[in-house]
Amino acid sequence: MEPSQVAVIGSGLIGRSWAIVFAAGGFKVKLYDIAQQQLMSALENIRQQMKEMEKLGVLKGALSAEQQLALISVCTDLKAAVEGATFIQECTPENLELKKKIFSQLDLIVDDNVILSSSTSCLLPSKLFTGLKHVKQCIVSHPVNPPYFVPLVEIVPHPETDPSTTERTYALMKRIGQSPVKLNREVEGFVLNRLQYAVISEAWRLVGEGVISPTDLDLVMSDGLGMRYAFIGPLETMHLNAEGVSNYCERYAEGMRLVLNTFGPVPEFSGETAQKVSQALSEKIPVVPKVLEARRKWRDECLIGLAKLKTQMKSD
Ligand code: NAI
């Protein structure tokens, strides 16, 4: 049976987001942190976010913001936080030793049914969970920021994770409106960051070699490739850009290999190119908290609009 109560461990940026996503799905959420003050500001921030989304008409789920808020409670006692929860989402800072400590604490207090899930962006399940008594119930569920409007969740098992843990996590993510994908085995960077780093790496080389300016490089993505990638992936792009994938390979494999063979080594991400990119971006968006915050707010508004459009395109 799917859980009706979940625990979220860590109430920072991602912990808050998970609490909002689970509450929208109708789940009771116990939000745990080591600092009471942190929990208080998390609750206030969650309230503001929910109210704002309700005002904009983008609040998900069948409940009002007040009703969703009432599903979230906070707690500084780990045992009490996980009591009654059948799914635990860990969202503490990206620090292997800290996360291992938390999972070993959880390992001592949970039963054999609860799922222990980590939000980690890049720590491998084999590093996080090996040796735990409940390793079969452990998994990584890696969200993308902001999870409420970018629904992807990468589900990454430990080699000893029970397939039922993966299936239950997948079903739960679907149920709360996220878009889960399953990795069959762990790999450094998972999939999203591997793709992202491949793009960053080539972007860096092109700017470094003086082929294009940093701002034009970004436009290639935002006004070019990115337009279609919000709707279809690179493989479907191949399929549609010819008469199917096989035909695409017949037509373009040689050309792709020719280009790919000119790609350079992994960049250092330092020195002259770093200066050039940093200068261009700082001119466009000065590194001042207020300016960065405003730009992030604008980005999130764009994502909200895109999320709306995607829903509309699906239902049409
Ligand atoms: P954050 O620094 O905003 O929040 C961390 C929270 O953990 C804080 O509230 C802190 O008080 C709490 N904390 C620290 N020690 C703790 C402990 N022993 N027990 C319980 N809580 C404790 O970090 P953020 O950005 O929310 O990241 C959390 C996790 O999510 C990381 O593993 C990160 O890699 C992952 N993630 C982050 C994304 C992002 O865009 N920020 C995207 C996807 C995943």
Distance between the termini: 33 Å
CATH superfamily of the largest domain: NAD(P)-binding Rossmann-like Domain
| Multimerization status | single chain
Give the total of domains. Answer: 2
CATH architecture of the largest domain: 3-Layer(aba) Sandwich
- Percent of sequence in beta strands: 5-15%
- Classify the helix fraction into a percent range: 40-55%
Query: Are any ligands bound, and if so which?
Result: 1,4-dihydronicotinamide adenine dinucleotide
Report the strand count: 8
Give the topology, please.
Layout lengths: L4 E5 L3 H12 L3 E5 L3 H21 L8 H6 L1 E4 L2 H5 L4 E4 L5 H14 L5 E4 L6 H5 L8 E6 L8 E6 L5 H13 L3 E4 L9 H17 L5 H16 L4 H7 L4 H16 L10 H14 L4 H27 L1
Parallel strand pairs: 1-2, 1-4, 2-3, 4-5, 5-6, 7-8
Antiparallel strand pairs: 6-7
Helix pairs in contact: 1-2, 8-12, 10-11
Bound molecules: 1,4-dihydronicotinamide adenine dinucleotide.
The site of 1,4-dihydronicotinamide adenine dinucleotide (NAI) has 23 residues, from helix 1, helix 5 and strand 6.
Which key terms come to mind for this protein?
2 domains, binds 1,4-dihydronicotinamide adenine dinucleotide, alpha/beta, N-(1-d-carboxylethyl)-l-norvaline Dehydrogenase, domain 2, 8 strands, 13 helices, Rossmann fold, 316 residues, eight-stranded mixed β-sheet, phosphoprotein
Describe this structure in words.
The chain has an eight-stranded mixed sheet with strand order 3-2-1-4-5-6-7-8, sandwiched between helices. It is built from 13 helices and eight strands. Helix 6 links the parallel strand 5 and strand 6. The relative contact order is 0.08. It folds into two domains: about 180 residues, NAD(P)-binding Rossmann-like Domain (Rossmann fold, 3-Layer(aba) Sandwich); about 90 residues, N-(1-d-carboxylethyl)-l-norvaline Dehydrogenase, domain 2 (Orthogonal Bundle), CATH 1.10.1040. With about 325 residues, it is an alpha/beta fold. Helix 1 crosses helix 2, helix 8 packs across helix 12 and helix 10 crosses helix 11. The site of 1,4-dihydronicotinamide adenine dinucleotide has 23 residues, from helix 1, helix 5 and strand 6. Homodimer. Keywords: Cytoplasm, NAD, Oxidoreductase, Phosphoprotein. One of its GO terms (molecular function) is L-gulonate 3-dehydrogenase activity. This is L-gulonate 3-dehydrogenase. Its main location: cytoplasm.
